[in-house]
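Late entry, evening session. Most of the bench is empty. Finally got around to the prediction I had been postponing all week. Sequence below, unchanged from the version circulated by S.P.
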Amino acid sequence: MAGKLFEPLGYTVETVRTILDERFPEWGASPYINLKLRGQVRLAELLNHLYVLIPVFDRQKHYYVSEDEIKKLLDHGAGWLASHPWRNLIAKRYFHGVLRYAHKAIDKLLDGESADAVNREDQLTEPGDKEIRTPLNEERLEIVKNMVLTSGASSVIDLGCGEGRLTALLLNEQQLRRVTACDVSVRVLEKAAQRLRLDRMNPHRRQKLTLMQASLTYKDMRLAGYDCACAVEVIEHIEPGRLPAFERAIFEFASPLTVIITTPNSEYNINYDNLLEEKHRHSDHRFEWTRAEFRAWTDRVCQHFGYSCEIRGIGPLDERCGTPTQMGVFKKNG
């Protein structure tokens, strides 16, 4: 767990576990570890990281956990906790498993995005559990990244990049010489720049990265010229009447060799107990497709724009209704 918590913040982590008592080796390993962190960070950042994360290791807090702790977590987690891939786990353990406080804290961190929506997908998973399931969002991004690499692309554009989680993964790949992240929101792009540590990025990484404001429903030739384009959990945020414009902007005008699109599978929603009938997973979703509807859309896109498409699922499989996420990998014909 030490690696999961500290490595995303730029630290090199070294842990050593010893036996409980050298005189009685049959007692087994000690429950404690020696932890060494190495990194170049501002002292204020280090202290905030330690303030939040040290209690996360402690399953037995020795003081009463109240709602006042939410403000402390937000104050010390400002600028880094919202983008941490294990933020849900951190919040859960910081509040000693009091999930109503964890939900409130996450909701505030995400500037009003529904914490319930986040927690339906990014499970509050314990790394120490016998069976560790990767949070859906993390699994989805990893699969998309691998599909980009498998396509042979050397240039990629992250359409609707949000805070840049996929972009960060793509930047780490030597195969990719040019990575562009675009979003319609300037505020979101500013958050992406902060999360990617743009102001401290080494020159090589900075040279291959471009952040760009762009709408995905207008012809924009700046979106053209890439081997691969990714739209991860994006199209469901577009008004259905604007989908034809999105299709033309991406498949006709930008026309990359590979397009990777993921979107929720609405049939899987029955597995979410706190999701009311006919309610979407997120308040900003304009629609959510069944598997048949997604297949019909991909078939129509392929027919109109000269692509072929392979569909696969992402996440745990339910025999009745498939997986929570469906992904289409479009390949340009010829």
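Two things to note before I forget:
Strands lie at 12-19, 29-38, 155-159, 178-183, 209-213, 228-232, 258-264, 307-314, 325-332.
The first strand starts at residue 12 and ends at 19.
Will write this up properly tomorrow.
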